[in-house]
Amino acid sequence: MRAAGRELGWLTWPPNVEREGSQKSQVGWEVHQRTLNGSQFYTYQVCNVEEREQDNWLRTTFIQRHPSASRVFVELKFIVRDCNSFGEGTLTCKETFNLFTSESDADVGTTFRKGQFRKVATIAPDEITKRNEMHLNTETRYVENLSRKGFYLAFQDIGACVAIFSVRVFYKTCPATVKSLAVFPETVARGGEKQVLREVSGTCVENAESEEQPRIYCTLDGEWVVPVGQCQCKPGFEEAEDSCRECQPGFFKADASSSKCEPCPDNTQRLNPGASFCPCMAGFYRAHTDPITGPCSGLPSAPKDLEATSNHLPAGKLLLSWNPPEYTGGRDDITYSVLCQRCESFECKPCGEKIRLSQHGVSVSELDAHFNYTFTVEAHSGVSVLVNEAAPRTARLSSTTLTTSLQHTDPPRIASMRLVERDSTSLSLSWDVSPRQLVQSPSVHYELAYRKKDNKLDVTTYVVLKLERSSVKISDLAPGTAYLVKVQAFSSDGSSGGSSVEEQFETLSDEHLNKTGVILTSAVGGAIMLLLVIVILVLCRRRSNSHARQGPEDAYFSNPEQLKPLKTYVDPHTYEDPNIAVLKFATEIHPSHITKQKVIGAGEFGEVYRGILKGPGRKEVAVAIKTLKPGYTEKQRQDFLSEASIMGQFTHQNIIRLEGVVTKFKHAMIVTEYMENGALDRYLRDHDGEFTSYQLLGMLRGIAAGMKYLSEMSYVHRDLAARNILLMLQCWLQDRSKRPRFGDIVSLLDKLLRSPDSLKTIADFDPRVSIRLPSTSGSD
User: Which residue ranges traverse the bilayer (predicted)?
Assistant: First the structure.
């Protein structure tokens, strides 16, 4: 059975032609129906083995190419007759045929040009078909480096007896897959002479991540090989087959890894699924150095069996001992701190530094007799600092207290001597005695010896005074003369701790007294300036009371309850340990809550930064951060802490607010509120001529309100200058209707000057100031 090739759409060449002088026609490729293994097949076949110079072509229809398939495979099923089965007359018989291809961007129809085809392969059978048997061969060849939209296949017969049963054209793909938690899409396998592998990028499955994008390679045979990179489940998720699932309640995973979720450690909460860590239960904490995967710890209990003994010890010495706490909170980094307080009457003051120990005992020396000493021993661990910040009352549960006293009596000795007052002919002196309780004791008397400081004399002569009190006024001295003075204290039994170090004091000269009038004149001028400020404050309050509606500045200047201080200033230098003073008056801030942004100046102790303070449960606020420069001395550090202790005692809208300090870490810092406009002197210079008299008056009122507050706190500033006045942005938004008129100021000032009883003496001299200017809130 035969059919024309065009009925199946394939093109044959050359077309069938009549041979000259013969009734037969030359036939090329034709469609035949064959039976193979009981099944009917249509085949293309050609069998012109008796004719010479055969060149028969069979071309397929136009085959569209997948854009990514640059390499396709051609599978042929065919049979080839054995040339020997045709007899000796078939000398030109062949047992092979050729495969060709031609690329094109469009279907060219019936146009056929052999020159456009390139040879792919010569097809030879594995088994040939003989007369009484049929062998079906299957051969696969590939066509590569395809780049156009489609292509044709062509089969060339050069004198064989061939029947083609099927032609299958296909390309290979690497199937979509998930490897190492990375999803890779189905990918067409392609390659060429230089590219055997195709790199494919993948994406991590949901709830997985990777430091680098995962990659894998697709081979020409459609297989995945050589994965590069790996996805790992995010914190709170673990791998389950080819996906990431949440950790179950009571389990956690802290990092992105291939590990499984772990049970929550001791003393932690077992909350929702998908936990990256287990938070601590109430009353338990993690130190800053503890891993997030570790258990939480509680505070240690108080040390046990605190005892004090002075037996067989030198005078003024105690030995404190205690046993470790019964409960350590699950930690092994237990240390101890000892706080000593000396109590006199109803007042207790620190008597030494708070020290940190790892032993269970400490020796305390240089104690005075007949005083009550209270020792507090506190157990600490790595989480104690967290408890001190979050719940100070809870931290006290880790301490125990003991009160004791020493009964021995040391001979009296002079601790220090100071100048109280002086003029041109007299010196007033006083001194301290150790032990302190002997100062006012009638059983103690003193011998004071003094002499002129004159190195020209061969013999040193002292004037000796016997005294019952710890102070004296030495009269009939020479003006402008230096004197050397020493004091010795004696008990009732005549014992003494020795004389004090010889100290030098000098009387005033007559010339110095002549300058007093000039100084008094300056003091009176300062008094008048203070009166002017008082007048302004009084007028502002009167005008404020006449308005039912308060202006925005009244919250700063006109509320007497806000301006009234609730406590009295305490000089931090009265504390022997500045660390105790700063902890009493300032809040400790953890450095992680502070962010430095830029340097805005340099202070006495180091650089000053603008920064951000973000505490737990608080919004971010702009702050100024004072730092302590590297290489500081101990005195500089004490002065630095004293400044914070001073600022921490003041709470007023016209006084810079202290936010807190950093003292427990390497870099000490003082954190205050940030003043956007900077110092007053620079602000006035930069905006010279821009302010009205009312705005300048508002500045005076703000300064006066702050100084009045400091005065009522019994604090003397002594450095009040425009450079130390800082400005907020909002300080000029004031209601002008509250401003006093100039005539009112003149009227009230006149009344004050005409009423001497309303004026206070402000020129009370402070002997600590060498030029004898007044040093009080009035002088400020």
Answer: 518-540
Is 353 a residue whose pLDDT tops 80? Answer: no
Among candidates 739, 720, 701, 736, which has minimal Cα distance to 777?
A: 720
Cα dihedral across residues 644, 649, 654, 657: positive or negative: positive
Q: What is the dihedral of CA 267, 269, 275, 277, to 10 degrees?
A: -30
Bridge partners, residue 256, by sequence? none
Give the span between the Cα atoms of 150 and 108, in whole angstroms: 11
What pLDDT was estimated at residue 770?
32
Strand partners, 178: 183
- Say if residue 345's pLDDT is above 80: no
Compute CA distances 130 → 127, 133, 510, whole Å: 9, 5, 150
Give CA–CA dist 139/79, Å, rounded: 11
Check pLDDT > 80 for residue 36. no
Q: Are 77 and 67 in contact (CB under 8 A)?
A: no
* Burial track 244-274 (b if 16+ CB lie within 10 A, e otherwise): bebbeeebbbbebeeeebeebbebbeeeeeb
Instruction: Give the C-alpha separation, 78 to 656, whole Å.
Output: 100
From residue 141, give the alpha-carbon distance in Å to each of 111, 172, 195, 659: 26, 13, 18, 82
Residues 6 or more apart in contact with residue 43 via CB below 8 angstroms? 31, 32, 33, 34, 163, 164, 165
Q: How far is CA 385 from CA 15, 294, 327, 379, 591, in A?
A: 101, 18, 18, 12, 13
Residue type, 724: N
Q: Say if residues 51 and 161 touch (Cβ distance below 8 Å).
A: no
- H or E element in which residue 753 lies: helix 742-754
Helix/strand/coil (H/E/C) assignment for every residue in 360-393: CEEEECCCCCCCEEEEEEEEECCCHHHHHHHCHH
Consult the annotation and say whether 456 binds a ligand.
no
By three-state DSSP, how is residue 316 classified?
coil
Q: Which of 7, 9, 8, 27 is CA-nearest to residue 17?
A: 27
- Residue 77: C-alpha distances to residues 28, 80, 94, 99, 138 (Å): 19, 10, 18, 13, 5
Residues known to be catalytic: 719
The three state secondary structure string of 6-54 is HHHCCEEECCCEECCCCCCEECCCEEEEEEECCEEEEEEEEECCCCCCC
Domains and CATH numbers, the chain: 2-170 (2.60.120.260), 173-233 (2.60.40.1770), 298-406 (2.60.40.10), 413-506 (2.60.40.10), 567-779 (3.30.200.20)
pLDDT of 757 strictly over 90: no
Nearest to 568 by CA among 712, 693, 692: 712
Let me know: does 575 contact 581? Beta carbons within 8 Å: yes
How far is 410 from 346, CA to CA, in rounded Å?
A: 24
Is the pLDDT assigned to residue 169 strictly greater than 90? Answer: yes
- Of the two residues 488 and 392, the one the predictor is more confident about is 488
Cα separation, 207 vs 86, in Å, equals 72
Query: Are residues 763 and 777 in contact, defined by beta-carbon separation less than 8 angstroms?
Result: no
Question: In whole angstroms, what is the distance from residue 777 CA to residue 569 CA?
Answer: 13
pTM score of the predicted model: 0.42
Question: How far, in Å, CA of 661 to CA of 667, rounded?
Answer: 11
